[in-house]
Amino acid sequence: MADSSPYCPLCGAGFDPRLLALGHEVQPAMTRLIQVHQPGWTCAQGICPRCLLRFVAQLQSQRSPTSLQPATAPPTTFPYYHPAEKTVLPQAIRLPAHDGFDGQGVAVAFLDSGYYPHPDLTSLCEWPGTPAWSQMTSAQLRAAISAQPLRLAQYVDLTDGQQVEGLDAASLWDGAGDSWHGQMTSVIALGNGLLSGGLYRGYAPGARGLLIKIGRGGGRIPEADILAGLHWLLEDERWQRYGVRVLNISVGGDFDEPWQRNDVSLAAEALSERGVFIAAAAGNRGHDILLPPAQTPSVLTVGGVDDFNRRWSPLELDEIAHLDLYHHNWAEIDAGDRLLKKPEVLALARWLPAPILPPSPILGEMVAVGQLRERLLAGEDLPVDELRAFLSHLSATRKRQIFKQATTSTAALWQLLRQRMNAHKWIHPYYQHVDGTSVAVAQVSAVAAQMIQANPALTPAEVKRLIIESALPLPHHPSERTGAGLIQPARAVAAAMRAEGGPLLGLPMSGTSPELWPAAPMLGQGVARRYVGLWAPDARGVSVVGDFNDWQVGAWPLVLGRAGWWHGLLALPPGRHTYRFWVEGDDPAAARWLPDPENPARAESGYHSDHSLLVVAN
Fold first, then answer.
1. What is the pLDDT of residues 268-287, one digit of tens each?
2. Half-sphere exposure for 126 (CA within 13 Å, toward CB)
3. Measuring CA to CA, which residue among 32, 360, 337, 399 is closest to residue 177?
4. Which of 280, 298, 322, 518 has the greatest count of CB atoms below 10 A from its CB?
5. Ordered structural domains, the chain, with CATH
6. Would you say the C-alpha torsion 75, 76, 78, 82 has a positive or negative sign?
7. Mapping DSSP to helix (H, G, I), strand (E, B) and coil, where does residue 430 land?
8. CB of 78 closer than 8 Å to CB of 69
9. CA distance 305 to 349
10. How far is 536 from 504, CA to CA, in rounded Å?
11. For 538-572, how does the pLDDT look when each residue is reduced to its tens digit (9 = 90+)?
């Protein structure tokens, strides 16, 4: 239990004990750094944001400007910039999400080669008990997962001309190799990060999934099978029966053909006209060619960006200039009355966290590698009997290799361990990193689900327009390959709330300097004004806490306007200012703080989520 003292154990300053108790959200790398300077300190003792930011600055100063990947022997399969941060950053750190919406009430359909009901697709916040996933048989896995509340609207298997429906279908649980791709896309979009403690969650962890398996086995998907999936949704208005408002297509057709003559494109147009927003992957060949349905006018075609697995800010032009393009396809489409450049938007396409298929034999090795890694990081001795227990899931050949290395040196053991991690793109005992426009489009589909939850009146055309208009331009790359630029999840959802039918129509976005100031209280004594607000209809009070008021809870209260919108005007001096919202409910002990959902500018905080950032020029 956290210390209830109202004083920071590091600096001795007084703070709300509920804020200090958020020490349990401190990142592991930060925890280790603090303990170097403050031996004996634990997260349970708490820490104030002011002290934590000092350690953040220290860690930042130690990061390499270039990846340390080549310095690891053997090199890691992903870039990293500090020895204590050999990991892959979550989606929401690299592209900030709108935390106020999770896609609840929206169903997202997927057309893919196969699926598996991963635990991240449940509605659980934590798993009851501590299941030994890597030691379960396929039957035990199915029993454990199917007993939990799955966020799946339906499953249908249309492979090889059949039509098998139901969550008890054998192909949903068989764990075949072609199940991995659809599991990857659906969990990247809808996963709640259950097996990572919430770290690797998607943008729509409250949405339901409608999983449509198509193809001829082994992952091969002819164009006719994509058409079969679209027809299944159209027949008897099944899309409406299951509440589908978004369709994710991470596969492509056979031939480059004008959309007006292509049956897949025409079916996609028909589904869009009925009210389903469709996002499709541009493809990964790096050529000026698009295959159906990516060349369809109503479809939002998604390409990719490589951010090199590093933090960057949309406020910093030099950091934006370092964003590279993925090798996605592109083309110009004749839409009749105009020419369309596709892809229209981009999303992250490299170093994306994705789950390992639970029934896969790889999972056992992934878990064993993770356990061994933790022991080595802790500098603990590793008796042979414990090493044997850790590696019980490995093949006999690999066991002999590791036993041999373990008797020579720790450095040799580390090298062999890294080889096994690299073989599976290991980032976590249950997750690996993946790439491609298949995973890029999954992020866009999830953001669309958030937008529709925020404003159910949106049409597919409006969802597409708002995503495009809120994207971040990448002028250092050719326009025919970037479209409007990189999707900005937080801004897209904020724009949806202000579109026709949205609850915040006519109100400025938070974090901006609007020309017309709404009636809101003035907070602070600086010369520059910034408007901030939070949609929290169930809150009893909201205040702004930040470096400008020494992170004092309740010092700068917002006022409740219409439709559950709490807002205020901040009068700030020149400089860079970090802040959050402190949200009070009926139970004071359950108060929470969160970054500004509408402000995509973030600053590293040392916690699992970043602070929001306002920059005031001199």
1. 999 999 999 999 999 999 99
2. 4
3. 360
4. 280
5. 17-62 (no CATH), 93-354+435-497 (3.40.50.200), 365-423 (no CATH), 522-616 (2.60.40.10)
6. negative
7. coil
8. yes
9. 5
10. 12
11. 999 999 999 999 999 999 999 999 999 999 999 99
